[in-house]
């Protein structure tokens, strides 16, 4: 009873127009809900977060940009939306969260689903009050099924110089009506300021590979690995949207959600990440450059961080675009028309192989500054020379239908299809 009302809550709150409620056994459809009060962090803060997440040394210029821009960061208060500028439609997308049920009776927490990490961690009644800013808290004492995992702890790098850490419970976690009774739930005893700032977001739910889970002394399986055998197919799909809540489906592929064919690539399973090789790129309708791009699909990254040559070639096509050391990223005049970016999503180049086309209108991160520099926008494609990796973040994922398929060990794969993107 509780469970089916959860499904109604989820879809009533935002996902209704996008996907049918998953109601057959082994199939679950989860809709995101918008967090309209979210204020996007400055680019430097978002980029520094990626450096931390991928364990890269933060360059001095970036560290300085973070200091300059963090000083004026507002708190994301649900109730207070002061200081917003008139928005050009199509820019400054909000954040989307997914309500997840934990405990008995169910406690519903809005979480950020992150395919780039493997921890399920939440703000809780054990999080120091000074680090809580209106978040919905998980209270293990109020759940009859919560069990303390004595001796287990977790520690994870996220965000702006600080980290997250805490202890671990096991409890019932449910996606729609699919439950796992002993899911490791990591309760935060310390969180970084960027998480504190975001009052609507109660934590992360990682859908990476369990090998990257940070629980010590023993890593624990992700929710997906715990439920995979109950699913019709061992897959989940991510269908993020531009200026609309997206959908995560578990156990099936909704063939009405994409166009053309799905192009699959094998995945390297030795990290948290869904890591694969892209086969090249094209800018706008120019020639396709065949080049191997080691890539990671990461719904937890709002921008794309890619190969220097590709990024330079892309922004060279936009009059007035330049690298700004102040913002620590490429900026461009907001009235410019951005070219599409085409990415080769399969290395085989068969006739069926279909590259992903990201419409130019999606290639933005948002306004640089609503006061100082009117008309300056920040690109959604940035250069990450230290990464040696291409982080395929939300900029691209909003244009794609992505299939994450867990095969027998060594046989997992990731599939990309194009879809009708509503701009
Ligand atoms: C989910 O609910 C549907 C319809 O209520 C039911 O048919 C299905 O068996 C349930 N699935 C699970 C895994 O309990
Ligand atoms: C991070 O990178 C450093 C070297 O740059 C390495 O020594 C360390 O083990 C890495 N940490 C993790 C958690 O991968
Ligand atoms: C919102 O914040 C502003 C600036 O801090 C403050 O002046 C105002 O009273 C707040 N409004 C509400 C409704 O809390
Ligand atoms: C649970 O209750 C006990 C006893 O009242 C208290 O010491 C503990 O801090 C509580 N734990 C949480 C997570 O709130
Ligand atoms: C955890 O285990 C230690 C050592 O066995 C024990 O002293 C402690 O009381 C336990 N803590 C809880 C909360 O069960
Ligand atoms: C589910 O995941 C576990 C852990 O990765 C794996 O051992 C198992 O083979 C998977 N089952 C299916 C059906 O994919
Ligand atoms: C999809 O694949 C099928 C079978 O390989 C092929 O016949 C068809 O042309 C492909 N569709 C597109 C849009 O490329
Ligand atoms: C993609 O690559 C894999 C392995 O390299 C291959 O088996 C597959 O047929 C390719 N094409 C598509 C459309 O998935
Ligand atoms: C990507 O290509 C490199 C070099 O060809 C290869 O060693 C690696 O295994 C590939 N990665 C995946 C996930 O297939
Ligand atoms: C580029 O190609 C796409 C798809 O074929 C087409 O819709 C579009 O009009 C072309 N754009 C330009 C600027 O030629
Ligand atoms: C953008 O605005 C600037 C300043 O108003 C103007 O000079 C420029 O021509 C505009 N560019 C486009 C592409 O409309």
Automatic annotation (TrEMBL):
What's the short name of a Pfam family annotated to this entry?
Asp
Name the active site residues.
114, 298
Gene Ontology molecular function: any one: aspartic-type endopeptidase activity
UniProt keyword rRNA-binding, yes or no: no
> Keywords in UniProt for this one?
Aspartyl protease, Hydrolase, Protease, Signal
Endpoints of the signal sequence: 1-17
One of its GO biological process terms is: proteolysis
Q: Does the keyword Lyase apply?
A: no
Q: What residues does the Peptidase A1 domain cover?
A: 96-417
Family of the protein in this entry? Belongs to the peptidase A1 family.
Protein name as catalogued: Aspartic peptidase domain-containing protein
């Amino acid at each position: 009873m509780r469970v089916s009302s959860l499904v109604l809550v989820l879809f009533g709150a935002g996902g209704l127009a996008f996907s049918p409620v998953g109601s057959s056994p082994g199939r679950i459809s989860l809709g995101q809900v918008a967090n309209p009060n979210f204020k996007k962090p400055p680019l430097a803060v978002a980029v520094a977060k990626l450096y931390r997440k991928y364990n890269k040394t933060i360059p001095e210029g970036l560290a300085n940009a973070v200091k300059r821009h963090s000083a004026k960061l507002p708190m994301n208060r649900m109730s207070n939306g002061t200081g917003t500028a008139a928005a050009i439609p199509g820019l400054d997308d909000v954040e989307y969260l997914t309500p997840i049920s934990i405990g008995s009776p169910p406690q519903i927490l809005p979480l950020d689903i992150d395919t780039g990490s493997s921890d399920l961690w939440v703000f809780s009644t054990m999080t120091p009050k000074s680090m809580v800013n209106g978040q919905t808290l998980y209270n293990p004492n109020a759940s009859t099924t919560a069990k303390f995992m004595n001796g287990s702890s977790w520690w994870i790098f996220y965000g702006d110089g600080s980290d997250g850490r805490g202890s671990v419970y096991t409890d019932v976690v449910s996606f729609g009506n699919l439950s796992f009774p002993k899911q490791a739930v990591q309760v935060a005893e310390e969180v970084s300021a960027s998480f504190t700032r975001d009052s609507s977001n109660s934590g992360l739910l990682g859908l990476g590979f369990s090998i990257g889970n940070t629980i010590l002394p023993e890593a624990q399986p992700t929710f997906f690995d715990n439920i995979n055998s109950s699913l019709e197919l061992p897959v989940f799909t991510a269908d993020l949207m531009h200026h609309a809540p997206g959908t995560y489906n578990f156990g099936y592929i909704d063939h009405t959600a994409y166009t053309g064919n799905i192009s699959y690539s094998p995945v390297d399973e030795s990290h948290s990440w869904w890591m694969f090789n892209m086969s090249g790129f094209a800018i706008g309708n120019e020639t396709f450059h065949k080049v191997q791009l080691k890539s990671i699909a990461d719904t937890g990254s709002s921008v794309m961080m890619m190969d220097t040559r590709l990024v330079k070639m892309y922004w060279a096509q936009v009059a007035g675009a330049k690298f700004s050391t102040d913002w620590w990223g490429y900026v461009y005049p907001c009235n410019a028309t951005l070219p599409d970016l085409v990415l080769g999503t399969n290395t085989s180049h068969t006739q069926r192989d279909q590259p992903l086309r990201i419409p130019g209108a999606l290639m933005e991160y948002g306004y640089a500054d609503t006061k100082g520099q009117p008309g300056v926008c920040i690109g959604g494609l940035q250069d990450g020379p230290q990464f040696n990796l291409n982080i395929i973040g939300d900029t691209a994922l909003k244009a794609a239908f992505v299939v994450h398929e867990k095969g027998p060990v060594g046989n997992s794969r990731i599939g990309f299809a194009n879809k009708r993107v509503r701009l």
